[in-house]
Amino acid sequence: MHDNLYTPRPEHKFSFGLWTVGNRGRDPFGDAVRPPVKPNDLVRLIAEVGAWGVNLHDNDLVPIDASAIDRDRIVREFKNTCANQGVVTSMVSANLFFDPIFRDGAFTSNDPAVRAYALQKTLRAMDLGAELGAKTYVIWGGREGTETDACRRPDEAIARLRDAINYVCEYNLANKYGYRIALEAKPNEPRGDTYFPTTGAYLGFIDSLAHADMVGVNPEVAHEHMAGLNITHAVAQAWEAGKLFHIDLNDQVIGRYDQDFRFASANPKAAFFLVKFLEDVGYDNPRHFDAHAYRTEDNEGVKDFARGCMRNYLVLKEKALCWNADAEIQEILTEISSARPGVPTVEKFRESHAKELLGYRFDRDQIGMRRLPYERLDQLTIDILLGVRGRRSTVNSG
């Protein structure tokens, strides 16, 4: 039974980036430990482990200096491989952080030529994604930041970014690509500070865009955790605003550098509440694993890593079903949320309601006596996560 529950299926919309399963284990202190794997072979790997989709930056697939002929050949072969393997290209992005030209940013750079090149590269990446059938375009400002605010006023950087995204939206409309544009936040690294460091910052920014309806966010677990924030809260804010277009799943020890661990491997309780939220609200966009295998692994270990990401999500999905079906948990939730007889509740504004509310005398002492058994509620959650409590044990204990 469990093997079936934890087997990835297309409806789960699990995806991996070419840069994730293709990560060679290089870090600032050490060179690559795994041999390079060609994009078409990475698609075969993704298909072998049971994933639904592949994501890519433009230069993950097409070298930055490729000729038009080589570009078309590479794309044609990649499309054929994806079709043969039953893998969907679900998201694309432009790499605006690796090449030295972007050392001081892309869309926010002080150099007008850099900003124009970044826009050209983005439009070409959109063309590429449309040719591959992608419907989500992610913008991550990896170098959009600073080490010293002496270099530019931050409001000028914001205005430059707004102009670029407005242009991208117009290009999307002009070409009828149908992209949903998702903005991805990160507090720092590789820059000392990054503009728009959190998902919430981008949610506030989106309303200032010319085509705000076209633009949402792509929260990443590790990026919110780097700032010591609660990823489920960020995702919930995006969902409630109708802006959760994509999500990057991985894991991260709070406050560390961007570790990109296997999903749910560092903070399983935080991952549980994230999965529970996504499943409870019916999130149906791609579930992308933006993580990579440990540097100790060979290419077989990369497969173990990829399988582990998907398995952990599905295990936590089942745990969420157990949590929702647990009679004691539901009894506690009902108890702490129930209305009090005769006591006003919050409604939409009506003059009569406001008059009633202003005239009511609340008994603060009596209201404050309601027990809030959150210790018990959290321990029941831990019991479920540790496998000592589940739907069967709950029924038997009833």
Label this structure with key terms.
17 helices; 48% helix; alpha/beta; TIM Barrel; 398 residues; disordered C terminus; 2 domains; eight-stranded parallel β-sheet
Shape: globular
Give me the Rg, rounded.
24 Å
Q: Just give the CATH class of the largest domain.
A: Alpha Beta
Would you tell me which CATH topology of the largest domain applies?
A: TIM Barrel
Short note summarizing the structure:
The protein has 398 residues and is an alpha/beta fold. Helices cover 48% and strands 10% of the residues.
Describe this structure in words.
The chain is of the alpha/beta class and about 400 residues long. The protein folds into two domains: about 1-315, Alpha-Beta Barrel (TIM Barrel), CATH 3.20.20; about 325-395, no CATH class. About 50% of the residues lie in helices and about 10% in strands. The chain has 17 helices and ten strands. The strands form two sheets. The chain has an eight-stranded parallel sheet with strand order 8-6-4-3-2-1-10-9. Helix 3 packs parallel to helix 5 and helix 6 runs parallel beside helix 7 (about 155-175). The two termini are about 25 Å apart. Residues about 390-398 have low confidence and may be disordered.
Topology record:
Blueprint: H1 2-5, E1 14-17, H2 18-21, H3 39-49, E2 53-57, H4 58-61, H5 68-85, E3 88-93, H6 112-132, E4 136-140, E5 145-146, H7 154-174, E6 180-184, E7 193-194, H8 199-206, E8 215-217, H9 221-226, H10 231-240, E9 247-249, H11 268-281, E10 287-289, H12 299-325, H13 327-337, H14 351-359, H15 364-367, H16 374-385, H17 391-397
